[in-house]
Amino acid sequence: MKQQCTVTPQILTAFGLPADLQAKAVHGGHINDTFSVETPEGQFILQRINRFVFPSPEHIMENVSAVTEFLRNKIKARGGDPMRETLTLRKTTENAGFFRDEDGEYWRCTVLITGATAHETPAGSKMLREAGSAFGSFQSMLSDYPADTLHEIIPHFHDTPDRFRQLREAMEQNTAGRKQEAEPEIAFALQREKNCGFLMELLSQGKLPLRVTHNDTKMSNVLIDDTTGKAVCVIDLDTVMPGLTAFDFGDSIRAGAATAAEDETDLSKVHFDLSLFEAYAEGFLAAAGTALSETELATLPMGAILMTFEVGIRFLADFLNGDVYFRTAYPAHNLDRARNQFKLVEEMEQKQEEMNAVIQKHTAGR
Ligand code: GN1
Ligand code: MG
Question: Which domains does the chain have, with CATH numbers?
Answer without folding.
Answer: 9-114 (3.30.200.20), 125-361 (3.90.1200.10)
